[in-house]
Amino acid sequence: MIVFPAIDLKAGQVVRLAEGDMARATVYGDDPAAQALAFADAGAEHLHVVDLDGAFAGESRNRAAVEAIVAAFPGYVQLGGGIRDAAAVEGWFALGVARIVIGSAALKDPDFVREMAREWDGGIVVAVDAKDGMVATEGWAEVSDVPVVDMARRFEDAGVAALLFTDIGRDGMLKGVNIEATVDLARRVSIPVIASGGVKGLDDIRILSLHAGDGIEGVITGRALYDGRLDLGAALAMAGRS
After folding, report:
1. Which of the following is catalytic: 51, 129, 167, 171?
2. Which end of the chain offers a freer environment for a tag, N or C, measured as fewer CB atoms within 10 Å?
3. What tens digit of pLDDT does each residue of 129-166 get?
4. Which domain holds residue 204?
5. Catalytic residue at 85?
């Protein structure tokens, strides 16, 4: 199972939000590239980066920071946040991003996702963000009437690399991953699932890794790492056992 340390960007700074609320941001640093290198030094080979400003604006707002991260990090960078057209997707892949996460556009324009998945084999991840079981979009500011499983199943035959499932109510809150909902989703679709939201310690990594056979590809963790509640080396070792 892959452990993705997270770097969330707001105005060029490394932050974590509570429940996706931009007004509840905690700043953890002003050098995203240095943070990426720190994760690499701890053994990370994958990184999850989110342009939070871009998610709300619908277009890149932290390009310089993302470019610095990609240049500094020797592994694979997965990027999301406001990526909603073919030009943006192509531009990020040209820069060296390994996988692109598409969220809002996946709900509103599924044909776009299918087209990108065909063009960029293995490079597109669909974000399925949930609030009370329903899909949320626009940086989680809007909640749709589409159930999470229905959204995920739309892309069963699209060739997307993975689904990124986030329980918004747990994101940045250190409440623990919503294991039940995440594993249930993984069992009900054929696409690998990445868990996100609420990781509070090594036990979350251990339990998720036990479900790798159910389709859990990886887990994203942020605040627990920044607050020192989770040791990245230990998490990577635990995940490597699955």
Report:
1. 129
2. C
3. 887 667 775 544 456 667 888 889 999 999 999 999 98
4. 2-239
5. no
